[in-house]
Structure formats: C-alpha cells, structure tokens
Amino acid sequence: MTGKRILIVDDEESLRRVTQLRLQQAGYEASTAADGDEALAFLQRHPQDLVLTDLRMPGMSGLDLLKRIRQDYPEIIVIVVTAFGTIESAVEAMKHGAFDYIIKPVNSDALRIILARALEHHELRREVQSLRTAIDRKFGFESIIGRSKALLSTLENAARAAQSASTVLVRGETGTGKELLAKAIHFNSPRRDRPMIVINCGAIPRELLESELFGHTRGSFTGAVVAKQGKIEMADQGTLFLDEIGEMPLELQVKLLRLIQEREIEKIGATQPVKVDVRIIAATHRNLQAMVENGTFREDLYYRLAVIPLELPPLRERPDDVPELVAMFFHKFKQRLERPDLILPQTLLPHFSTYRWPGNVRELENIVERLVVLSPGPEITIADLPEDLRRQRDPLEAIQLELPPQGISLEAVEKELVLRALQKCNWNQTKAADYLDISRKVLIYRMEKFGLKKD
C-alpha cells in the first residue's frame, strides 16, 4: 500500500515533522497541516487517501475535522491520535466514522500496522464496489443486495479472488445467487474480455455431458456426423462455470481433475490431448464433503475445486436485508409492469422479514412480481399476500437451532445469544438488554460471566 497519500494534522510542529519523516521512509506520500482549517483547505487542492489527525487541537478539534471530512470526503479514511487520558474521545470519534485510533506517544511499528490495515480495508471496499458495479452492469444487482456481515465477507473474498486465476467453489442454497456471483468474479477479473461459458451439470443427461464438456471427433460414436468443440475448449483463455458440480458423474470427475492438473482435455475419439487455459468456478447446493465421505464425489477433485471456497448465506440468515430487497424488486416490477402508482405499505414488511424463504432471493423476487401483477387495488393489502406470508410468526421461529445428536451446552447457547444481541446492537448495552428483554444489570452480569467485551 506504499505510495498512498496521507495527510498528518497536528498543532505540534515537531510531532508533525517526525511523523511525516517516518511515513515517507515507509514509502508513503506524506503531507502536513497545523490545524483543521489548514487541513480542509489542503484537501480541496490535493486529494488524499488517509488523514491522521490529533483530537486535541486549538480552534477546530480533531472530532470536528473528522465530521467535516466524513461529510465532504466520505472516501477518505480517518485515523485519530489521542492521549492516554482521552481514550473516551477516541471512542466517540469511532462512532462518527473514524477507522481506528492510536495513543500517544505514537509507536512507529503500531502506526505502520494500523495504516496498512486501514488502507487494505479501504482497497477491499473499492474492489467490492467494483465487483458490485460489474454485477449491476452485466446482470442486475438484485440477487446480491444486502449489508449482512456474512454477505459482505463473501463479497470481500470474491473481490480478492477475482484478481487471481485460482479455482473457486461457490456454495449456497438454490436461489441465493451463485451464478450471479460467479459472473461478477469473471467480469471483474483479468479474463473479463474473454468468454465465460456456463454449463449446468445437473441439467444435461449423463450420456451427453461428456460430449458437451470435452467435445468429440467425427465418427467417434453413433450420431457424431461432425466434429464438435466442447464447452471447455470454448472457454479457452476465459472462465468455465460448472453449476451444480455435485451432479457430475464419477467417471467425468476424473477427466475434470486432469483438466485442472494438466491444463489439457481429451475429446471423445481423439488420440491426442488439447491444451487449454481456463479458470474454473464451480457451484453447488450440496454438501460435497459429505459426498466425499460416502464415495459419490472424488476427494482429490474436491480439494482441487475448493481452493477458494465462497459461501452465500441463505436469506433466512440475513433478515435485515429483506426490506431492502423487497423495495428494490417492488420498484423494478412497478416500472416493468407499468404500475408506477402501486403502493406497498411499510406495515406489511414484517410479514416478509419473518418468513423463512426456502427459495431464497429467487422466491422473494417471484412473490413481489406476483403481487405487482395480481393486486387489484392501488395499494397492496395483507389479503393480497400469499398465505405463508400472512401468518404472523413468533420471533422464536426465526432462530435456527440445529441440535446435535451428542448433546449441547445450554450455557454455550446463552453465551452465543448474548454475544449476537450485543453485535446486533453495536455493543450498546441498553439496546441489547431491551432486545433480550432483560435488565441492563442482568446483561452486564452475563457479559462478565462469559467474558464478553468488544474487541
């Protein structure tokens, strides 16, 4: 991340100069400003990647400077510097958008680590945005909308994977957007200008799948009146997406393994192999590890495919994303089906959020389209909703509990529940206690009992 532009804001000239020298020696392009006003004037003329600012300064405080930067330059990372006795102020700065804080006296090694982590995080966010732009431009953004932690983690890893040629295995239930993610990885990769060939291993009869994948020579079998190029050869220099890889017969898994290892294929009826250069992305809704254990999927192929595993979470595990998806699909179908004045009341959204969505995002999209088509009045009512959505559910139904046969620790479950409530409420103890329907005193007791504290 060297070469990045960093602005140091501090009213102590000697500290400014020392920090500037340290950062320049580390390879950064470092500039300085003596106060908040000078910093803002500098930012108007010189774009920066990161601002390192002291919190206690005469005139405009570091907190006020942070607020101005977040308002006018939201893409700039801000790290605050504080004395040991004012850590509470640094925490307040974090609430207003600071990436991190560092305590005086500034340790050179600690500063370099924090800067590197902040800039890497920023770069990943840019890559995720680029990935999302690719999805939006080519295929529509619908099936990958959301801000849940699990989804964002998958997108960040996908952004990293896109820049490599490594094999990717996308796992997720039907309707979670596996193909959409695979296409986004391809179109955000160095192979974006080369073909991406998609083949569904479960949709092609077993007797035809080998020919579809590898091709055949003329006369190699009855009906082969002409030579045929296979999908793998068509994807040369590009990407091959193997959807539902778990449906591939064992005899073809051997040939796919050879493709990955040797970068060559053998057509049906051919006497010589053909060299190919393809990047493989596979996807499945099945548990390949379980299939390996019962002998229906090759172990060596599994590990060759799962170099970079990506998990798309089911919609029931990210209920906070449902209202955003509903709003997006509703707007889309109102325009497409020419019902721009149709209203979906906010009071109906809890019915969507508490539904289990076994068909995931695809099911949600279909239901919203059906509502736009069939709702007779100017406003969608509860009577228009499918029966499964009309039924109000107990909040306990939203909790996923997989009880293991060997038993489970109730205390461990309680600890996990308290932890998740704190994370959901951004570690606000009052809100977390309300969420769990307990007193704040009881919550604090549980936190101390389980050793729970924010990192």
From TrEMBL:
<dbReference type="GO" id="GO:0005524">
    <property type="term" value="F:ATP binding"/>
</dbReference>
<dbReference type="GO" id="GO:0006355">
    <property type="term" value="P:regulation of DNA-templated transcription"/>
</dbReference>
<feature type="modified residue" description="4-aspartylphosphate">
    <location>
        <position position="54"/>
    </location>
</feature>
<dbReference type="InterPro" id="IPR025662">
    <property type="entry name" value="Sigma_54_int_dom_ATP-bd_1"/>
</dbReference>
<dbReference type="Pfam" id="PF00158">
    <property type="entry name" value="Sigma54_activat"/>
</dbReference>
<dbReference type="InterPro" id="IPR058031">
    <property type="entry name" value="AAA_lid_NorR"/>
</dbReference>
<dbReference type="Pfam" id="PF25601">
    <property type="entry name" value="AAA_lid_14"/>
</dbReference>
<dbReference type="InterPro" id="IPR002197">
    <property type="entry name" value="HTH_Fis"/>
</dbReference>
<feature type="domain" description="Sigma-54 factor interaction">
    <location>
        <begin position="144"/>
        <end position="373"/>
    </location>
</feature>
<dbReference type="InterPro" id="IPR009057">
    <property type="entry name" value="Homeodomain-like_sf"/>
</dbReference>
<dbReference type="Pfam" id="PF00072">
    <property type="entry name" value="Response_reg"/>
</dbReference>
<dbReference type="GO" id="GO:0000160">
    <property type="term" value="P:phosphorelay signal transduction system"/>
</dbReference>
<keyword id="KW-0805">Transcription regulation</keyword>
<keyword id="KW-0902">Two-component regulatory system</keyword>
<dbReference type="Pfam" id="PF02954">
    <property type="entry name" value="HTH_8"/>
</dbReference>
<keyword id="KW-0804">Transcription</keyword>
<protein>
    <submittedName>
        <fullName>Sigma-54-dependent Fis family transcriptional regulator</fullName>
    </submittedName>
</protein>
<dbReference type="InterPro" id="IPR025944">
    <property type="entry name" value="Sigma_54_int_dom_CS"/>
</dbReference>
<dbReference type="GO" id="GO:0043565">
    <property type="term" value="F:sequence-specific DNA binding"/>
</dbReference>
<dbReference type="InterPro" id="IPR027417">
    <property type="entry name" value="P-loop_NTPase"/>
</dbReference>
<feature type="domain" description="Response regulatory">
    <location>
        <begin position="5"/>
        <end position="119"/>
    </location>
</feature>
<keyword id="KW-0547">Nucleotide-binding</keyword>
<dbReference type="InterPro" id="IPR002078">
    <property type="entry name" value="Sigma_54_int"/>
</dbReference>
<keyword id="KW-0597">Phosphoprotein</keyword>
<dbReference type="InterPro" id="IPR011006">
    <property type="entry name" value="CheY-like_superfamily"/>
</dbReference>
<keyword id="KW-0067">ATP-binding</keyword>
<dbReference type="InterPro" id="IPR003593">
    <property type="entry name" value="AAA+_ATPase"/>
</dbReference>
<dbReference type="InterPro" id="IPR001789">
    <property type="entry name" value="Sig_transdc_resp-reg_receiver"/>
</dbReference>
